[in-house]
Amino acid sequence: MGLGDLFGESIIYNKGPEVIQSADTPYGRIGVSICRDLSFSAYARQGGEQQVDIMLNPSYDVPKSKGPLYSLRTIENGYSIVRPVYNGYSYTVDHNGKLLADMDSDNTDTGIMYADVPTKGVNTIYTAIGDLLGWICVAVLLGFIPLNIVLSTIQRKKIA
């Protein structure tokens, strides 16, 4: 039992299979993730790999947050997100990251948020290659360190 098992949700809930569930519907392929699941890029990428068109992400936010990271996930993976939040900021974002509708739970009389959500997502390169481009950038940067040392050593020998 790790430290994470002593605090938070793991006290109450058992860990699930860590698989995005999706189904084909007349409104496109619908995926379901819960709460902060989309905070993890590998998990969110499953929706893109399954060609999800709309990701439903019900949540209960503590503390209240607009969750801009989830808008990034829609762009990365090519699906729209509908995020109804019980105690917080509900919103819908399309696959381009455009805010379609939003609602603050403290500032609503009806508790109903309306949005016209695109029923077709897009394929993205991120879904195919994941974080590969980022790791290539890290490798190139690390490659510049020894190159810089060698070049600066040669430069110093020319000056001396």
Briefly summarize what is shown.
This protein has 160 residues and is α/β, with parallel strands linked by helices. Helices cover 32% and strands 18% of the residues.
Give an overview in words.
The structure is a single chain. The protein has 160 residues and is of the alpha/beta class. The protein has two domains: 3-128, 4-Layer Sandwich (Nitrilase/N-carbamoyl-D-aminoacid amidohydrolase), CATH 3.60.110.10; 130-160. The chain is built from four helices and six strands. It has helices at 41-49, 68-77, 125-129, 132-159, and strands at 21-25, 28-32, 54-56, 80-83, 89-93, 99-104. It has a six-stranded mixed beta sheet with strand order 1-2-3-4-5-6, covered by helices on one side. β4 and β5 (89-93) form a beta hairpin. The longest helix is centred in the C-terminal third of the chain and has 28 residues, at 132-159.
Sum up the structure in keywords.
single chain; 160 residues; alpha/beta; Nitrilase/N-carbamoyl-D-aminoacid amidohydrolase; six-stranded mixed β-sheet; 4 helices; 32% helix
